[in-house]
Amino acid sequence: MIRKMMRFLTHRVVITAVFILIQLFLLLCIVWNLNNYFIYFYAFSITLSFFLALAIINNKSNAAYKIAWLIPILLLPVFGGLLYLVFGSDRTGRYIRNKMGQIGSEMAAVVEKVSVNSGIEEMPPDVVNQSTYISRWAFAPPYKNTSTEYLPMGEIKFQRMVEELKKAEKYIFLEYFIIQEGKMWNTILSILRQKVAEGVDVRLIYDDMGCIMTLPTGYNKTLEKMGIKCRIFNPFVPILSSKFNTRDHRKICVIDGNVGFTGGINLADEYINEREKHGHWKDTAIMLKGEAVFSLTAMFLSMWDYLSQTKEDYKKYYPTKLERNAQGFVQPFTDNPLDDEAVGETVYLNLINKAKCYVYITTPYLILDGETIKALTTAAKSGIDVRIITPHVPDKWYVHAVSRAHYEVLVEAGVKIFEYTPGFVHAKTFVVDDEYAVVGTINLDYRSLYLHFECAVWMYQTPCVTDVRDDFFKTQQISQPITLEKIKKVSSLRRLGRAVLRVFAPLM
Questions:
Q1: At what angle do helices 63-75 and 492-503 cross, to 10 degrees?
Q2: Rounded distance, CA 365 to CA 402, Å?
Q3: Cα dihedral 372, 378, 382, 384 in deg (nearest 10)
Q4: Which of 257, 291, 375, 382 is a Cys-bridge partner for 143, taking CB atoms 3.0 to 4.6 Å apart?
Q5: Residue 273: DSSP 8-state
Q6: Can you give the pLDDT at residue 349?
Q7: In the CATH scheme, what is the code of domain 93-330?
Q8: ∠ CA(287), CA(290), CA(292), 5° rounding?
Q9: CA angle 26-29-34, nearest 5°?
Q10: What are the domain boundaries of the chain?
């Protein structure tokens, strides 16, 4: 009992909470002691809030994000500005932006030099335009000579990943948002240790905020002692700051440069249904073999360079095994929140706006801005078959409430929405017209689209496009349709609550 209590009290989440409470207490004490100078403090706060409101209105952020901060600043002018400075302002700093920009440019130059002309310019203009945007703004060219395998469940991805990890001869690169000890991670870790003993270069990047509840402090040092090179993205420090809004949400596994995985699946047991969390967990991934794996490799190495302050020779990691008979085009891409270009959202909007027959989407969160709502409703009104699958069992009740707050306007326009009855959908997939598909880490919410490092694979006319479609239909069969009648039955009080949450959705 005493040991359990000590483990609880010394857990870094508890220590972090204590430090933050102390900081809040000190902040309140400072404000309280300013009573004697209240008129000056009030004038300063009003002036600060006024100029911050002007800055927010004129910055490049999403309109809904602006509104979410303008409301508290205007309603609470004395404290609103201070709250924004602590939690809402961009604290990444010019140095970090410049450093990431420099590394990104270096990565783009190398990828462009070693990538082979794919021939996509001979495709129809809609295809070329979508691919060109990704090439120019995500520094990610299209590839041929790449086979794709769609993995419709976490259990299947785990099995395929273990098979491929065991074949590694040169290097293994892993970059994940969440890692937690259990069957999945312990199995992978055992293979990694064996590969280290064989002389394989094993490297791991994990996000500290993503792992704050799942890994102990200093876990990177434990891995280093095993011979696994490890870096932590944005190490968490218990201070009040908005910089922890920026997270590495990517999931990347690269083996010898020839095999790569990405998708929604983290390295924890709920993702393979070994541990029940929010009902049955539905997730997906994509496995690449061949030329396009190089873009995943470059994504990993660029992040490694940034965290290690090193400069890798990317060309050493080019694939040696190309899939010469593979069909279609494959374009892995990343979305960098520090470059003011919402690549993930634009890729999704391009797919919706250029659809001719259907758009099928799976997403754990449906927290949309006006532009995406307009695109989805216009497509449905134009006769496009638009369908979306979301969870029925939520992981966060307030986020799920915001998702449901968007249902009415979508369903009224003809969008068909289904909730995955067995549990939680964590998959992030788009499939369009039996021609295009995107599988990756990018949720339909503000955090994924504007605040996190993300990645995905855009595909055109690859065989697995129809696999994504067929999996959507299978998932739909065990999901319950959301009708306008059901939506109208929601109580007025709950509607009001959802409306309030929707206003502040960009801050969740």
A1: 100
A2: 9
A3: 20
A4: 291
A5: T
A6: 97
A7: 3.30.870.10
A8: 80
A9: 130
A10: 2-88, 93-330, 343-507
Equal fold, 93-330 vs 343-507: yes
Tell me how crowded residue 372 is: count the other CB atoms within 10 A of its CB.
18
pLDDT, one tens digit per residue, over 112-149 is 665 667 788 889 999 999 999 999 888 889 999 999 99
Highest mean predicted confidence (pLDDT) among 17-21, 69-73, 83-87, 376-380: 376-380
pLDDT of 35 above 90: no
Over range 302-319, report the average pLDDT: 88
Query: Secondary structure of the chain: what % helix, strand, coil (to 5)?
Result: 50, 20, 30
Place of tokens 């590394």: 103
Query: How many CA within 13 A on the CB side of residue 466?
Result: 4
Give the Cβ contact number of residue 428 at 10 Å. 26
> What is the rounded average pLDDT of the residues 379-407?
92
Which whole number is the average pLDDT over 3-7? 61
Distance CA 388, CA 381 (A): 15
CATH number of 343-507: 3.30.870.10
Dihedral (CA of 286, 111, 297, 289) sign: positive
pLDDT at 91 over 70: no
Decide if 300 contacts 252 (C-beta within 8 A). yes
Q: Phi/psi class of residue 251: alpha, beta or left (left: φ > 0; alpha: ψ in -120 to 50)?
A: beta
Average pLDDT over residues 146-157: 97
Tens-digit pLDDT profile for residues 432-490: 999 999 999 999 998 899 889 999 999 999 999 999 999 999 999 999 999 998 888 87
Picking from 296, 299, 295, 292, the residue whose alpha carbon sits closest to that of residue 323 is 292
Q: What are phi and psi of 274, to 5 degrees?
A: -85, -20
Note every long-range contact of 189-193, with CB atoms under 8 Å and residues 24 or more positions apart, other chains counting: 189/226, 191/162, 191/165, 191/166, 192/165, 192/226, 192/228, 193/226, 193/227, 193/228
Q: Which helix (H) or strand (E) holds 440?
A: strand 436-440
- Asked whether the beta carbons of 460 and 328 are under 8 A apart, the reply is yes
